[in-house]
Amino acid sequence: MLANDATSIWKARRLLLISTVIIGSLLTLYYTRNHAQFVLSSSPNPFHTAADPATPISPSFPSIHNSTLGFQQVYILNLPERPDKLDSFLLTSSLTNFTFSVIPGVDGATVPNKSLSSLNGLPNKKASRDRSVGSWRAHLNFAQTVVRSRISTALLFEDDADWDISFKSQLELFAAGSRALSTKTATEKPHSPYGDDWDLLWLGHCGIRRQDNDSQAFVIDNDPAVPPRNHRANFGGKPNMTSYANSTRIVFRCGGGLCVYAYALSFRGAQKMLLRQTTREGYAPFDLSLDHMCRKDPDFRCLSVFPQIIDSHKAAGPHNRDSDLGDMSEVKEVRKKGYTFNIVKSVRLNIKQLIMGKGEDELELQWNDGPEVQGPITTRWEG
């Protein structure tokens, strides 16, 4: 009887060991295929935990690898008269394996002045006025969609947005930072992989600032997808990165920014946006009014990342195709090769290679003079 019991225990232990090895192997395979080799370093932040801080871990947020990137919905802003931009975005998103719905762009000429909360600051020239007002109204329509459909979180792209081939892995790292910055208690389990206590995630911009007197940040070191300093292009403010290595990215509370190539709203954030934007005492283009909300409104919680993980693509061909205004009757300048600011391995620049099934070592890098990154990505809490 004792011999039978010992044999049963030995078999059970052997089965458990085999099961553990199999599960570990599957997690490692999944993890490697999604370019997500990173290490969680030890940290005083109580929300930043790992069983073994010195060991590479499997993806912490597998829902980010779903068809909506861990958000409830994904949208693209696209004018109906620019199906060419929709075509390009569809190809790019299909190669990153996510789906989206379209928020139609708005012709500003159809938006009467009486629908604006203020005319103070409105551009005098009709073309400038219509372009600015149309963009502003389209972004408010996005917020309106989130509130009307009671969507918990939604990500919006502009239709010329571009990102790195490791985009989903970058979003996982960003999510670890946004959770660390927005989770209230160590025992809280957020519904969203990005945390629950935020209004805006500003992922694609052309300039960004940290909140004044806020030294806290989630630091991502040794990231091969970070653009070298001499190739970073920003047209607004930017965080002081002199104390960080050339391959470091940071996630932080945002104190304003410029350009809206991509951002996410929570349901609460969409409510606040509709309220603030429709009761402003002066008119401002959408990105500047968003800058004001993140900078001046303590109740509007904005998080961002630098260097940005989404930027605007400039395609090869006539320059005036970039703009949604005007026509092609006068083509004065032609771009011989497309480019995307701040993205190392652009999906758009590698569309053909990716469709043809080329390996990662066969893909085009925008720059070949970046810092040599050795070892896995690591993360740490600062401040």
Distance between the termini: 61 Å
> What amount of the residues lies in strands?
15-25%
- What ranges have pLDDT less than 50 throughout 5 or more consecutive residues? 1-59
The global form is globular
CA-based gyration radius:
23 Å
The number of helical segments is: 7
Mean pLDDT: 84
Total DSSP E strands: 16
The major pleated sheet works out as: 11 strands, mixed
Structural class: alpha+beta
Task: Give the proportion of residues in helices.
Answer: 25-40%
- The helix/strand series, from N terminus to C terminus, equals HEEHEHEEHEEEEEHHEEEEEHE
SSE layout and pairings?
Elements (H helix, E strand, L loop, with lengths): L1 H32 L4 E3 L32 E6 L4 H14 L4 E4 L21 H23 L4 E6 L2 E3 L3 H16 L17 E5 L2 E4 L6 E5 L27 E10 L3 E5 H11 L8 H11 L5 E5 L3 E5 L2 E2 L15 E2 L3 E2 L10 H5 L21 E6 L1
Parallel strand pairs: 1-16, 2-3, 2-4, 6-11
Antiparallel strand pairs: 4-10, 5-12, 6-10, 7-9, 8-9, 8-16, 9-11, 12-15, 13-14
Helix pairs in contact: 3-5
Tell me what you see in this structure.
The protein has helices spanning 2-33, 83-96, 126-148, 167-182, 267-277, 286-296, 351-355; strands spanning 38-40, 73-78, 101-104, 153-158, 161-163, 200-204, 207-210, 217-221, 249-258, 262-266, 302-306, 310-314, 317-318, 334-335, 339-340, 377-382. The protein has 383 residues and is an alpha+beta fold. Strands 1, 2, 3, 4, 6, 7, 8, 9, 10, 11 and 16 form an 11-stranded mixed sheet that branches. Strands 5-12-15 form a 3-stranded antiparallel sheet, with no helix packed on it. A two-stranded antiparallel ribbon has the order 13-14. It is globular and about 60 Å long. It starts with a helix and ends with a strand. The model is unreliable at 1-59 (pLDDT under 50).
